[in-house]
Design goal:
Rossmann fold, globular, binds guanosine-5'-monophosphate, binds magnesium ion
């Protein structure tokens, strides 16, 4: 195992590297069955999904394109409803395309509820939601993942693309931070 400056900040490992690898391959196989011959567009929601995206597209050997979108979600000051803003928009026409949205984690559902509407408004033929992690305990919007890697409890996780204050994205497993690491 390589040296790590970050392992000491992790309280516990929720999903190991081996579990990630096996599950992502199984997800790739499932998407192959569904999308072979359909030329789907894999759409990574930045930044959190970048590592999952890289592994998933290699686990699913269909003829496909990749695209990236960046959104930021923030709480409305007067109500608890989340608002979502696009910070890096699509660079290509998605009219008539089968879109596979690749997300790191489905939490409140605000981000994906917004994105599904947005992609349909931009003319997508179909929108399939693929998320590595699903945290159903905190759902505010009725969003359902078509394919989810792991269902996790209501704990803040980092690694495999997911950050805390932009750190820990390069941790190769999914873990829970020690409270001291938030200081
Ligand atoms: P939403 O609440 O809109 O479903 O999720 C919005 C975003 O919040 C996710 O895409 C992810 O970037 C972030 N998020 C939610 N839960 C966690 C978590 O446990 N860890 C990290 N690092 N990010 C999270
Ligand atoms: Mg995300
Ligand atoms: Mg983040």
């Amino acid at each position: 195992m390589a040296n790590s400056e970050m392992n000491q900040d992790i309280l516990k490992v929720l999903v190991t590297e081996e579990e990630l690898q096996a599950r992502v391959q199984a997800m790739g196989d499932e998407l192959y069955e569904k999308f072979a011959g359909k030329n789907p567009l894999f759409l990574s929601v930045l930044k959190g999904s970048f590592i999952f995206m890289a592994d998933l597209v290699r686990a699913c050997q269909v003829k496909s394109d990749v695209e990236f979108i960046a959104v930021s979600s923030y709480e409305n000051a007067t109500s608890s409803s989340g608002r979502v803003k696009i910070t890096r928009d699509l660079q290509e026409d998605i009219t008539g395309r089968h879109i596979i949205v690749v997300e790191d984690i489905l939490d409140s559902g605000n981000t994906l509820a917004f994105l599904v509407n947005y992609l349909k408004a931009r003319g997508a033929e179909s929108v399939t939601i693929v998320t590595l992690l699903d945290k159903p305990a905190r759902r505010e919007k009725a969003v359902h993942a078509d394919l989810a890697g792991f269902t996790i409890p209501d704990e803040f996780v980092v690694g495999y693309g997911l950050d805390f204050a932009q750190r820990y994205r390069n941790v190769p497993y999914i873990g829970v931070l020690r409270p001291e690491a938030y200081a």
